[in-house]
Write a structure and sequence with these properties.
Elements (H helix, E strand, L loop, with lengths): L14 E9 L2 H12 L4 E8 L6 E9 L2 H13 L5 E2 L1
Antiparallel strand pairs: 1-3, 1-4, 2-3
Length: 87
Amino acid sequence: MPDNKKRKVQLKYPCLWVYKIIGPDADDMRRAVAEIIRDRAYKISHSRSSSAAKYHCLNVELLVESESHRTALYQDFKNNPSIKLIL
């Protein structure tokens, strides 16, 4: 019988992680990422825009050191008003 419980993905840290962030202004989101990540190396790239260009999706890739580091960055992105959604 299959186990219907969600299984937590086991990650080996440090590892590369990609956050997808979505918001109305790509430049504002880029500035927010720079402020949040500060002096750490990261790569940011445009993923796509909505058909009317009201929303933009950016990929932010960086090395995360631990589960707590990964979730702290998620919260920082989530709390920034320039970023409407993070995946």
